[in-house]
Amino acid sequence: MFLTNTNPAYKAPLDPRDAETLGVEAAAMVSRFLSHRENNAETPLVSLSGLARELGVSSIHMKDEGFRLGLGSFKALGGSYAVIRLVLEEASRHLSRPVDISELKTSEVAAIAKTMTFACATDGNHGRSVAQGAQLVGARAAIFVHAGVSDERVAAIGRYGAEMIRVAGTYDDSVKEAARVATENGWTIVSDTSWPGYERIPGLVMQGYTAIIGEVLRAMHEPPTHVFVQSGVGGIAAAAAGHLAIALGDRRPIFTVVDPSRAACIVETAKAGHPVVIPHGEPTIMAMLECYEPSLVAWRILSRVADAFMTVEDEDAIGVMKMLANPIGADPAVVAGESGGVGLAGLIKAAGDPGSKAALQLGPQSRVLLINTEGATDPKRYEEIVGETSVSILSKNAEAMA
Q: Which of 112, 122, 221, 349 is deepest in the core (most CB within 10 A)?
């Protein structure tokens, strides 16, 4: 499925709340917070020139979030950032003065953090980020995982000291259960999706993601003309599209949101013109994107600044995992998890369809930006699909550079 944005809000200015959340000053604050993280480093921006030639575009750059803060996913930027912000805000209230990020490791802040518990539902990556943030500040974390989350991903979260709570059903069921239990216990919910009356914290999570686009714009000689970003509830797509719209204004790129066909809540929302909950069907291999209800904040942003919406199939996701592991010509190999390369799957599909290609004005002058949103966050599953370990694939790059 491919459709252009026909929403009445399309190209309208961002809601002032969202413009503040995703603006240049907010992104600068995120960068400052990151400078206080011990393992912080900008992630690679990989040039795939061989693939660009094959697809008939000027360039393809992929921001590889598989190296982000030791978590292997862009989600490392969101949940932990929100946790830190919330702890500092609580400390400011208790101490009756502004508390800065530079004071995070002080005994005063640590004593306050120790009294706090952060909860969330996750497919895997967001939960690791919240758990990491809680461990960093000395707070507790309670992470709710649904039946489809692999034992490997559960164990990866648990290593950060979080209490793991299994929930029957889907991701959306785990979101509801996390909200219920957290409310009963007085815990703070740090969700990457939003619902009526719950918007600020998901906004902070999305604010954390603006670091990705800030790094991209500093690294690229010319800004991208086209962006393809995958979507679950919509958070990463909305953060990227919103910040690009603010930072580049009239020069903003043509932005396409890519959904799994089996969990296309953003695409169906765009088709309906308002947020919709889609029925649960057959699971998708794109586990981190298997969401059936969009984030209200994310849709409010995407309805204004996304230009097109499309779906890809499970076999498309598998194909790009293998393609990135065994690249064309001298292109470097990229380790992309089941959901990581879905934006590339969308680009390939659009480039091969004359109608989509024309609608997106995709051609020889196009500079395309993609985001590899996760590396091999489930190494066993990755090896089963690709036929090789992520370590082996990355070693090829090291050998080529030697």
A: 122
Alpha helix locations (H) across 159-194?
Answer: 171-185
3-state secondary structure of 121: strand
Hey, how many other C-beta atoms are within 10 angstroms of the C-beta on 271? 13
DSSP 308-355: EEEEE-HHHHHHHHHHHHS-STTPPP----TTTTHHHHHHHHHHT-HH
Q: Tokens 């066909």 sit at which residue?
A: 261
Q: Is 75 a catalytic residue?
A: yes
- Judged against a pLDDT cut of 70, whether residue 159 lies above it is answered with yes
pLDDT in tens, 30-62: 999 999 998 899 999 999 999 999 999 999 999
Q: What is the pLDDT of residue 281?
A: 85
Name the 3-class secondary structure at 356: helix
Residue-wise pLDDT for 56-83, tens only, equals 999 999 999 999 999 999 999 999 999 9
Place of tokens 């996760």: 374
Ordered by start, the domain boundaries in the chain are: 2-73+201-401, 79-191
What fold, for 79-191? Answer: Rossmann fold (3.40.50)
| CA dist., res. 305 & res. 307, Å (int) | 6
- Active-site choice (18, 64, 123, 307): 123
Query: Of 95, 191, 105, 98, which Cα lies nearest the Cα of 142?
Result: 191
Active-site residue flag, 105: no
Residues 205-222, mean pLDDT to the nearest whole number: 97
CATH architecture, domain defined by 2-73+201-401: 3-Layer(aba) Sandwich (3.40)
